Amino acid sequence: MRVVQSRLFVKRIRRFRKQEKQVLDQQVRAILDNPKIGQEKRGELRGVFVHKFKIHSTQYLLAYRIKENEALELIMIGPHENYYRDLAKYTKDRK
User: Fold this and answer.
1) d(CA 18, CA 26)
2) Residue 49, Cβ neighbours under 10 Å: how many?
3) What's CA 90's distance to the chain center, in Å?
4) How many CB atoms lie within 10 A of CB 83?
5) Domain containing residue 44: CATH number
6) Which domain holds residue 84?
7) In the chain, how long is the greatest CA-to-CA distance?
8) What is the pLDDT of residues 11-22, one digit of tens each?
9) Among 61, 48, 59, 55, which Cα is nearest to 88's?
10) Which of the residues 15, 40, 47, 76 could staple to 63 if both were Cys, CB 3.0 to 4.6 A apart?
11) What is the model's pTM?
12) Cα separation of 89 and 67, whole Å?
């Protein structure tokens, strides 16, 4: 399965340090091993999965979806504050 990153995802991980990116890579590998590891959202975010994990003491949420062409699309990553609001806005703009 190939991995596709959204512009928003790339923009946000640009700020990560090397150690934080290593943790993120481990989490992406875990998602590739088991795509249902995250919780599927309902309503306007149907089809989007959110996987929660910690880097240091901060909990991050990673939104992703599985595309029909066997690709894992990484949509957005960030802390919980305003996360779902921003995610809904981003996915609505991309439809």
Assistant:
1) 13
2) 20
3) 12
4) 16
5) 3.30.2310.20
6) 2-93
7) 36
8) 999 999 999 999
9) 48
10) 76
11) 0.90
12) 19
How far apart, in whole angstroms, are the C-alpha atoms of residue 64 and residue 83?
13
Q: Which two tokens stand for residue 95?
A: 């439809």
Amino acid at 18: K
Position 94 pLDDT exceeds 90: no
Neighbour tally for 3: CB within 10 Å:
13
The total number of structural domains that make up the chain: 1
Tell me the mean pLDDT in the region 66-86.
91
H helical segments located in the chain: 7-13, 18-33, 83-93
Phi-psi region of 85 (alpha: psi -120 to 50; beta: other; left: phi over 0): alpha
CA distance 82 to 87: 9
Q: What number is the average pLDDT over the span 24-44?
A: 93
